[in-house]
Design a protein that fits this description.
By secondary structure, the protein is α+β, with helices and mostly antiparallel strands. It has two helices and eight strands, in the order αβαβββββββ. It has a two-stranded antiparallel ribbon. A two-stranded antiparallel sheet has the order 3-4. About 20% of the residues have low confidence.
């Protein structure tokens, strides 16, 4: 009798551990508060509040104050003018050595219109090498 109770208890504990270790599919970045202030609330409450909605259901959320960007791509608010994973439009990824400047993927090491950073232009006749204009 004690053996059966012990085995049942072990099985229940294993099941509880397995269920608690199951990952949650929604990323916290996908959620945006729709109303009210979370000031003074714990981080846990901010992440698990019932008043959170994904931008695919309400794209206007991305234009709210504090949003990462005004555009909604794959249920996330992003700025397609600067986001390396959504450069210019949703899903357009820049290569490893490139960043997104004004919605275009550019290489800061060689692009003379974005030399070393976005909108840093080399003077006429100069080239961009290693992210610097007129590097010897």
């Amino acid at each position: 009798m004690i053996k059966k109770v012990l085995i049942t208890l072990i099985i229940l504990m294993a099941l509880a551990i397995n269920l608690s270790a199951t990952p949650i599919e929604d990323n916290e970045e996908d959620l945006v508060p729709i109303s009210g202030s979370l000031r003074g609330a714990s981080r846990f409450l901010a992440q698990h509040s019932r008043g959170l909605v994904k931008c695919n259901k309400n794209p206007r959320l991305c234009r709210a104050k504090g949003s990462p960007g005004p555009d909604c791509c794959k249920k996330k608010c992003v700025n397609v003018k600067t986001d390396k994973q959504n450069c210019g439009l949703c899903g357009k990824k820049c290569k490893n050595q490139e960043i997104c400047c004004k919605g275009k993927c550019v290489n800061l090491m060689t692009d003379k219109r974005n030399c070393g950073g976005c909108n840093i232009k080399c003077k006429k006749g100069n080239s961009c090498k290693l992210g610097m204009c007129s590097y010897a």
